[in-house]
Amino acid sequence: MLYPAELRLRNLFGSEKNNGYGHNCQPTSVLFSDVYGIFFIMNEQNPLQQAKIIRSAKREFDCLLLHSHETVKATSLREILKNEHLVVGDHVMIRQQEADERYEIVELCERKNEIFRKIIRTNKKKVIASNVDLIMIVSSVSNPKYKPFLIDRYLARACEWEIPAIVIFNKMDEFEDQFDLELEKKKLELIGVNFFEVSNNEDSPYYQNLEVLKKLLKDLTTICLGQSGVGKSKIISSLSEGKIELVSARLAKGVDKGAHTTTWAEIVDLDDFYIIDSPGIRSLAVSDLPLEELSGYFAELHPYFQACKFKDCKHQESSKGCAFHALDPNDEGDKIILSRLASYRKMRDEISEIPEWERS
Ligand SMILES: Nc1nc2c(ncn2[C@@H]2O[C@H](COP(=O)(O)OP(=O)(O)O)[C@@H](O)[C@H]2O)c(=O)[nH]1
Ligand SMILES: [Mg+2]
Ligand SMILES: [Zn+2]
User: Fold this and answer.
1) Does 71 share its domain with 120?
2) Three-state SS at 196
3) Which of 182, 211, 289, 300 has the maximum number of C-beta atoms within 10 A of its C-beta?
4) CB-CB contact of 345 with 294 (8 Å)
């Protein structure tokens, strides 16, 4: 049953849109406008507040109140969970309950975007995080080894999710020409992806690039993706000037145990920016990517695709009239295109291996 005030709120936002994504919640400031003045009088004790989910367990969510930056624990109305899994990054409307101190999530605000995978068999989305402004693909230039194919995979995902991405070359203090970094940088320039060369070693000249990175992250919600060991946690710790290390140490000791079960990712609130430290998208398989959209994620290959003699060209060594055959593996520009083509072919073949019947 809805309280009259709640009905009123729904009417203001338009309740028809409540299809599991909830209504399009307004920014916090609106909550304090004249219109809501009326609402506050009606329900002065327990006003609705906008919050961001920064950690999620099965039933309980850590919510950051957007106007006070205070973190509270909240449970959710069952109707919401029936339609949707609540994930980190979600904006929700929450209210303190009458009877006790506890908070309850009463509405899920419309998501700007989602970090998701598709379950191939059911074609259903499994959402991992939401409302992400930027994807930070972290790689290491030393150990673990730099893998261009991995970067291309994460970039394809970023295209699928329609979220801008940047690449971080980390551990620059250990770079000794293990691979052609200049070529990799030119490749990213060609495809229009910004990159940062950084180090968490304070004595390295690359350490100061973290400051530049920090400026870019201001006011954004960023998710860190990358293989385990590339330095994601360390970067977050450096960006927070040590503040986050304390939290990790406390977690490691198990002091906060219980609240952290079944957590996939959590948001670190760094005052003027948020970072989601993900333990990595566990499997880097791309089999759930839509095959028909894959070529769209490789825009720089399009002129070649169009120049191939046959429309259904597979762009293999053996493909007759393939435009890629004209490229020179010793030429820098051509090398970049061929390396992107190799990534494209790998992903395409991986997706094609899934039989049609399993896709739908
Ligand atoms: N030399 C060097 N080591 C680093 C750097 N950043 C991280 N590491 C080390 O790499 C290892 C993995 O870092 P971690 O942040 O846990 O990686 P994550 O698994 O991606 O979160 C740790 O031993 C770090 O101390 C760096 O810039 N330079
Ligand atoms: Mg880590
Ligand atoms: Zn071809």
Assistant:
1) no
2) strand
3) 289
4) no
Q: Which region among 15-19, 160-164, 255-259 has the lowest average model confidence (pLDDT)?
A: 15-19
Query: Are 249 and 120 found together in one domain?
Result: yes
Which of the listed residues 234, 239, 277, 281 should we mutate to test ligand 1's pocket, taking the one with most ligand atoms within 8 A of CB? 234
- Burial string for 26-39 (b: 16+ CB within 10 Å, else e) reads beeeebeeeebeeb
Q: Which ligand is nearest to the CA of 232?
A: 1
Structure tokens given for 233: 């946690």
Residues 236-248 pLDDT 10s = 989 988 777 645 5
Neighbours of 187 (CB within 10 A): 24
Looking at the fold, whether 221 and 97 belong to one and the same domain comes out as: no
Query: 196 pairs with which residues across the strands?
Result: 168
Query: For residue 352, how many other CB atoms are within 10 A of its CB?
Result: 12
Burial of 285 (0-12, 13-18, 19+ CB in 10 A): middle
- Domain co-membership, 26 together with 47: yes
List beta partners, residue 62.
55, 73
- Ligand 1: atom nearest CA of 236 is 15
Beta carbons within 8 Å of 108's beta carbon, 6+ residues apart: 20, 21, 22, 80, 84, 86, 90, 91, 92
Domain shared by 151 and 260, yes or no = yes
Report the run of H or E that residue 103 belongs to, with start and end.
Answer: strand 103-108
139 lines ligand 1 (CB under 6 A): no
Mark the residues whose beta carbon lies below 5 A from ion ligand 3: 308, 313, 315, 322
pTM (two decimals)? 0.83
Name the amino acid, one letter, at 253.
Answer: K
Residues spanned by the domain of 341: 291-359
Q: Is the pLDDT of residue 63 over 70?
A: yes
> Parallel, antiparallel, or unpaired: how do β-strands 124-130 and 266-269 relate?
unpaired
The reply to whether 286 falls in a domain is no
